[in-house]
Amino acid sequence: SDLNALASRVVERFAVSRQGSGTSLSRELAADLGPVPLEGPAIERVITNLLANAFDALEGRGGNIVVRTVAGPGKDEVSLAVADDGPGIPPENRERIFDLLFSTKGAKGTGFGLAVSKKIVTEHGGRIRLDTEVGRGAAFTVILPRV
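and the corresponding structure tokens:
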């Protein structure tokens, strides 16, 4: 499947549905990505979950979100990152961020999004990584095998 096309489709949906939110949404898609063996609807769900979380992190404050694809980090891998310049994730939440039913959103969150996303990525033979710094944002990177 074409990971860039999946990412573009989800970004376009969010660009329309979150218009006027005060948050800028952009994409930087690698031209040399090539086809990736993946289940399109499942990976779309992952991208949707990550984008929804990024918008939630920036709610009421505005900011920037970037969806980026890269051929690599290894030659047999591709990655997709959703990065925001929001408040970041505090250290006490980082260990549990992928736990089922863990949420910092109160009644607004279910605690399913990141847990389900991690399961989908793992089932694709990939992994998901969090890079964050309090006050400087968060980036979730999905790394998938090319073969």
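(Above: one complete record from the training split.) The chain has a mean pLDDT of 90.
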